[in-house]
Design goal:
Blueprint: H1 2-32, E1 37-54, E2 57-72, H2 80-83, H3 94-121, H4 132-140, E3 145-155, H5 160-163, E4 170-175, E5 178-179, H6 183-190, E6 195-202, E7 208-215, E8 223-233, H7 239-270, H8 281-294, H9 296-314, H10 322-335, H11 341-370
Antiparallel strand pairs: 1-2, 3-4, 3-8, 4-5, 4-6, 6-7
Length: 372
Amino acid sequence: MLSFLLSALAFLVLLTVLILIHEWGHYFAALKSGVAVEEFGIGLPPRAKTLFRWEDTLFTLNWIPFGGFVRLRGENAVTTAERRAPGSFASAPLLSRVVILSAGVIMNFLLAFVLLTFGFSVWRWIPSYFSFAEMQHASEQGIIHLKLAVMIDGVVDDQSAAQAKVPAKSILTAVDGKPVTLPEDVGLLQEGKNRVTYSVLTGQDFSIEREYSLTLRDGKAGVELVAYPLELSAPARSLLAGAGLALREVKVVTEQTVIGIGQLFKSLFTTGTIPEGIMGIVGIARLTHASVQVGLLMYLRLVALLSLSLGILNVLPFPALDGGRLLFVFIEFLFRRPLNRRFEATTNMIGFFVLILLIVLITFNDVLRLFV
């Protein structure tokens, strides 16, 4: 029960931080640009509660906990009077509007970059973009500490290992008493033999030692073997070195997120399904729970990656998102005249409802996965 409550609190903190840091970027940039902020909303409408008013801004809590917003004076202005009202977003200089619309995304990227920089320097994180070959190379250069082991990734039905009940996801340490560190070692030690003895580590922390006597068929015991990083750590780095790794992490995660979003829309339009790697609020809650079980540093890494993903999502040129609003500003700049405000407002409203529908579909898919 305590674990559940802690995870729920961590999830609430995560959502609140990501939303507030994004919307605070818009809010701060608007105030500095002389644009009035009429409402600062946590969550998406409908409104649940008015929290307080500070100067000209109403701070509110809303029912849909998947985002937030700042309502700027004149951002959906239709009439000339609305556009020319004091502090109106519509009458602000083009550069000011670009800065205001970009500020939320910039704050998300900045939060991610700062956390990743400290993570790779002070907290000794391993970059997620390291392939197995890169980890081996980095280990040889002393950049990271890597101790490889052989994992029994799966057991083939009706063969010797399955009959002996060798557990999958266990570590194979030796064959006939001879240590192994790579899957190729196992094949060499089994060559020409009919029976072998596997020394295996099992349990959540691989602390239980067991031995299994297996009969080989064509030199195989019926196991699927993979190389596994049993020990993986990094030395402390300078902040500059950490910043370099953080920049590459940002680049890789950005590319992966854009590809994932493309796959989502492709899958929706071609098969009507949501790809495996796409998750919504329920999936994020499960990830938060898993990270909390590991510890604070894993939780902070999740905050960094989700902040980055939120920034990337918001900069997409889709109506109602920051990127969509930026697109309208750039179109206005290209044609040297204001766009039809009624058309812009309608397009953003349609985009908003499409986003809500997409959120509902992804959340429903998350719930279905709980029972599969």
